[in-house]
Write a structure and sequence with these properties.
4 copies of one chain form a homotetramer. Chain A has 10 helices and 17 strands. Chain A is of the alpha/beta class and 350 residues long. Strand 16 of chain A pairs antiparallel with strand 16 of chain C, so a sheet runs across the interface.
Chain lengths: 350, 350, 350, 350
Amino acid sequence: MSSVVRVGVIGYGYWGPNLVRNFAECPGAAVGAVCDARPERLALVQRRYPAVEVTTSAEELVSRADIDAVIVATPVDRHFELALAALRAGKHVLIEKPMTSTSTQARRLIDEAASRGLTLMVDHTFVYTGAVRKMREMTAAGELGDIYYYDSVRINLGLFQHDVNVLWDLAVHDLAIMDYVLGQTPVSVSATGLAHVAARPENIAYMTMFFPGSLIAHVHVNWLSPVKIRRTLLGGSRRMVMFDDLEASEKIKVYDRGISLNPSPENVYQMLVGYRTGDMYAPQIPLSEALSVEAAHFVACVSQGTRPLTDGEAGLRVVQLLEAATESMAHQGRLVNVGRLVNAGSLEHT
Amino acid sequence: MSSVVRVGVIGYGYWGPNLVRNFAECPGAAVGAVCDARPERLALVQRRYPAVEVTTSAEELVSRADIDAVIVATPVDRHFELALAALRAGKHVLIEKPMTSTSTQARRLIDEAASRGLTLMVDHTFVYTGAVRKMREMTAAGELGDIYYYDSVRINLGLFQHDVNVLWDLAVHDLAIMDYVLGQTPVSVSATGLAHVAARPENIAYMTMFFPGSLIAHVHVNWLSPVKIRRTLLGGSRRMVMFDDLEASEKIKVYDRGISLNPSPENVYQMLVGYRTGDMYAPQIPLSEALSVEAAHFVACVSQGTRPLTDGEAGLRVVQLLEAATESMAHQGRLVNVGRLVNAGSLEHT
Amino acid sequence: MSSVVRVGVIGYGYWGPNLVRNFAECPGAAVGAVCDARPERLALVQRRYPAVEVTTSAEELVSRADIDAVIVATPVDRHFELALAALRAGKHVLIEKPMTSTSTQARRLIDEAASRGLTLMVDHTFVYTGAVRKMREMTAAGELGDIYYYDSVRINLGLFQHDVNVLWDLAVHDLAIMDYVLGQTPVSVSATGLAHVAARPENIAYMTMFFPGSLIAHVHVNWLSPVKIRRTLLGGSRRMVMFDDLEASEKIKVYDRGISLNPSPENVYQMLVGYRTGDMYAPQIPLSEALSVEAAHFVACVSQGTRPLTDGEAGLRVVQLLEAATESMAHQGRLVNVGRLVNAGSLEHT
Amino acid sequence: MSSVVRVGVIGYGYWGPNLVRNFAECPGAAVGAVCDARPERLALVQRRYPAVEVTTSAEELVSRADIDAVIVATPVDRHFELALAALRAGKHVLIEKPMTSTSTQARRLIDEAASRGLTLMVDHTFVYTGAVRKMREMTAAGELGDIYYYDSVRINLGLFQHDVNVLWDLAVHDLAIMDYVLGQTPVSVSATGLAHVAARPENIAYMTMFFPGSLIAHVHVNWLSPVKIRRTLLGGSRRMVMFDDLEASEKIKVYDRGISLNPSPENVYQMLVGYRTGDMYAPQIPLSEALSVEAAHFVACVSQGTRPLTDGEAGLRVVQLLEAATESMAHQGRLVNVGRLVNAGSLEHT
């Protein structure tokens, strides 16, 4: 492989242009080709990047000898087939989130990449933002103490998707953030939701995740909100964090607040619960574009053969949760064990 | 009965002083006596209201001939017993929310009051605020169209209660508001939550309510949040409302936003989903204290024998939902039919 | 003097009830008498405080032997006469802000109190808030570096006063805060403003104050704003502070931001200006009521003969600035030397 | 002239790329050439727009036969010379704001364009935003009643300019907005400010403008603020507007609030002042990019020979105010008559 990683991008819709721009500007990378079924989208590529090859055929792109890595940025239902073809053609792969439509598909891609020694990475963009990295840093360093809850609201007036429910469109961000920040995997899920347009998937959903120990997580997603909210609370025994992604500055606020537990003077088996309130501070967060950090990380992993932060396993864990939540939601909150689905996926896969 | 309604208040803790002050200033009402087990609380009453009788005995207060109505403002586990005694003594009754600890108790109080022709009212305070009345007005007039969802967040760093979980402390407000604003009753509930202090009830809870048709409701309550939030979204097919109780002015914002459904030109069985965004307006809301409006309403109901807006039935419906949610939460989101519990309550009661 | 300071309050309008309540609850103090010309106001006092004497005659109150100190809470045009009478009757005095209508009057009160060895204090309430004390603490400790500017906006839809312009009503708060926090006195003032109702004083005003060195201050006050804003910026060479009094928590935010000056590598006489941006933090501020802290301070000063934080000199400095600003405003921003007026005042006074 | 207006852009620094992008995408326009003294900036142009000619010589660009109009986007001290050369070469001209360094220069450009029948437009970008157009629409339709005040705060941590003070950098936006929205010209100015870095111009400034009648305007600009604020209040006798440019939606809020004046029942010569508070609404504002609207307007003016909304006279009026304010600031608020400077400018020019 040359010293420059040459990427081919399949899908030039909403997210594709951002991927092309960031890889075009990424040192050590070059965009070799872009594929889209729509000629007018390819014309756009040509106007902006005259040196980039364009094609309407994904097979052609995947089989190009001058391409080292393939980026899949199509609707989710084509992720599996395209990524598999790319891996089989010996290309490294970066897939837009969610990784695949099913956990079985995700596991097959993981195996395929592993057996071929290729890099497989999932575009969990938020993991590469300064704010989420700050949260990870604090939890990993124990600054928050024991984590008690993760609570996220991600709502706005959004496009009603035809094929996936609002969990697969919006909650996927939170599941990717949680996977990175918490370093723990939920054991079970209870989700509820509703579809307000006939024959469309759910446009509003609530998802509770249970972890071992005293951690609980909840995600509220909604395509039918008059206001846009992107706010996450991360509560710990020592400190608590609010992450508001719509704040221009001060995206992360750290509160020295919580409960204090003191042994009761009257009863040694009892604890007295008290308040603890202290300062708040908003650490300075680097403002570099997440996708540019992510592109550099992908290039480094491909060049050096190292494992990506958001590898296929991370993508799989997120898809498993989405599957479990969708099943739970279909039964109005019925508890679904995430582990069971993992096994089911593994079985199906063999 | 004299032309003035003379009330006796049992319980002078957190809420009692507000009740006494508002009834003291309410035309057509007078505070005759206050009862509390703690002498220092009664001393406070005497300093502020030298003319009011004080007693540590609830029985004494209930049996006073110069008292027309009894207000029960004690912890919830004594509501039933005290309200029942008052009704049996022929007094009208106003009970702080939640009405009782069980739906069976609530139904017995309703029957007792009915058989004696006495007024029974529950202190669902929010129903008497300008903001909630505005929401009711808009839903009743059809200004919001079909109601799609009610979503509320009610969180802060709060006192961990010993006896009740966070639903009975905080979600009760939302259930009372919904009961009044929506004019519909949920058929089933799925709730999740967690206790972060051993041997204490849940301090964080999520509660989804399913209604007939395309309405869903969700309430998030939390005693362990570093920030205080009191924000409700009410989404309709024509307009949407955000109620933020922490806003000094502009508590209610009405958004002319939503989805627009158009028959598809290609397929008569399909609808095209589009956005609709328009103006926002914040109607002027009267700022009178809710409790003063409520006191006047109670006095009017007692004097004229009319049914209170927040009568025993409203109190019962809220308690039924809290029971169902608590049961569901104990089973990590298991769907609980609200109707079943209603019947159970009725059966037990007979 | 007895061990308890007995106060008499003249004026039971908007602010008087707060003064009476706080002195009534202040250890070491007792409210002996209240005076107001309006019988209905006195009736209110009697209902709330049966033990307090009431009178419509200020002379009577001032001459009572059982009163140690007089609090003047009338409109400003009566401050001088009443405070002077109280001092002459040997009473300690606390005057609502602004201290007097003219600096000449203020100086005469200072002299009178000094010659009699009596305490003279001005009710600059904000000086006794946790937020302002925090700002003072930071400036005094050098945490902000050199102070570059004080900028305050204090606007709302307010009552148009008949007798004083908006500076005497609203800017007086900022002048009192600045006097305490900055520890410096302006040398000159330029103010502009306008009256929008015929025959009324200015309802909107802008006031710039020049200090020795590189400090400038500006205050914007307005009775005709559709929104309420109470926001002060305090810019220093090391750190900057935003004080937003309408924030429930986080009233004070400290920003580690500013400019950095580096000697130019090319020209030793030049400095390169750069940005410096860092964390923000919001220190925990004690929430005790300012007036309660202030009442305790007044009682301590009277009892121990110590000098109040907000003594007559502080009151005088604020009145001098208001005089200078009013003169400047009458001439559309003409620069007025504050020192000149001090001298003028002194001359008149002799 | 061909049916397409071919523009040449001088200056490819901060604002130039936005101009090139918008004219490149503007129907009826084409970017023919770009000039910048820095080769690395021209390389950037070539990479993005391979078809556009580049040059380091402004003279060459101005003299090109295939260019119909010249856009001057250099630092302000070169505006006059370059615009004059372009007009003399028969080109239409669009100049970035502020138009020129002096009002004399502005008037000469106006005369030159008039005598040659060429379009002269100034890039007062805000005039082409949906929010400012909405404000203009409301004032023009009388919806706000008589305008009482314009008050703007435009502060942030900003680059300290070497050559111009903060008024020429930031207040210029407000003066351009006011010129369009109010339709009135101030008669005099009082400004104050301070420089916190030796040998640099003022970095903080306050500017009051007096109009005939009961209108007053004030602008606060500051390069040394820890927070970014872009907030304008427009107060009228019937309604009031708040324009917050940092709000993602709801940039414009209209308040049905103000004072009500009623003839006094006691004195026919007196007016009673009362409050009036009502609803607030936030009209939907079109989100199209201002510069794209402005480019289309320039093309239309050039093609049809119509007068631009922000013509040379508008640019001149803004420069006159900046001159007057700078003079006033040098004398600590001394009142400067704007008319006098106009005359002075005219005299000098002849």
